[in-house]
Amino acid sequence: MQCICCTSEKISSSDLALFGFDVCQNCGLVFNSKRGTQGRRNRIENHYQHIDPHEHVASSKRPFFKSAISQLPAPVDRDMKILDVGCGYGYFLKTAANRGWIVKGVEIVSDAARRSKELFGEQNIFHGLLKEANFPDDFFDAITMWDVLVFVDDPFEDLKECVRILKRGGKIGIRVRNVFFHRAIYRLYKTLKNIALRFGIKKPYVFHRYCFSPKSIYLLLTRAGFENIEITNSPLTAGDPYQHSKINGFVSLVKFFVYLTSRVIYVLSSRRWVVGPSLLIWADKPEGIQN
Ligand SMILES: [Zn+2]
């Protein structure tokens, strides 16, 4: 078995083997190779339609969306197109459209795709997978994938598709969970589980099919053909959308403290240690790339 990020074959099971996860010893990618692709699309659709408190989570991301769009150049004297992969109900697209972007989205959850089509027009939202949309070469000025790459079947293939459909010099923005943080929190929670349960605090860690470390996402983007890769701590969602604790305000306070600490570590390590719960990544398609 090979790691999709660094191609190393040094893969071993880990303390997360219980959940079916393997770890790349070279770059730190944690992934679940046993979860087959059969029925995955239905499972994701079901999850986002019925289980995930979608609107709470999406609205908790509003401050993040605002901060993310402000990091892209505003379209001033020419039309600029942005594609949001996994656009959901169109919350980020709304933010982008307000800044003057021509927006397009791809979404696999049918309810969400329908709602986005109502908002942005049938021709601007594709219901299906990124590759099925068949966008032309060198088409977009920017592509965003907020908390999406962890769910796709093959992140390497999807990123290569992004390189193909981005214009030269175009930008990609990606948000993923930081496996470095979630493994540490998993170990801590396991040790303090009884105390946490007494205070009604649910498990605060999350492991998806692909769990990236800063090094693994860097190597994956490089392998797919991106350059100028910048990885920072992502601003966190607002409030407690997943209702981790029954104590009002407790999670917000802890999140604020965690974010502040991760920022301090980032600055003190001269931007080398990115230890926060989520990563925000920006990268460019090279000016001279051949598709
Ligand atoms: Zn690796």
Overview of this protein structure:
A seven-stranded mixed beta sheet has the order 6-5-4-7-8-11-10, sandwiched between helices. It has about 290 residues and is of the alpha/beta class. The protein contains ten helices and eleven strands. The model has no long low-confidence stretch (mean pLDDT about 85). It starts with 10 loop residues before the first strand and ends in a 7-residue tail after the last strand. The longest helix has 19 residues, at about 250-270. It has one domain (about 50-285): Vaccinia Virus protein VP39 (Rossmann fold, 3-Layer(aba) Sandwich), CATH 3.40.50.150. About 35% of the residues lie in helices and about 20% in strands. Helix 3 (about 60-70) packs parallel to helix 4 (about 90-100) and helix 6 packs across helix 9. The relative contact order is 0.15. It binds zinc ion (ZN). Zinc ion binds near residues 6, 8 and 29.
Outline the secondary-structure elements.
Elements: E1 11-13, E2 22-24, E3 30-31, H1 40-51, H2 54-60, H3 62-70, E4 81-85, H4 91-98, E5 102-107, H5 110-120, E6 125-127, E7 140-146, H6 155-165, E8 166-177, H7 179-191, H8 193-198, E9 210-211, H9 214-224, E10 227-233, H10 250-268, E11 278-284
Parallel strand pairs: 4-5, 4-7, 5-6, 7-8
Antiparallel strand pairs: 1-2, 2-3, 3-9, 8-11, 10-11
Helix pairs in contact: 3-4, 6-9
The structure holds zinc ion.
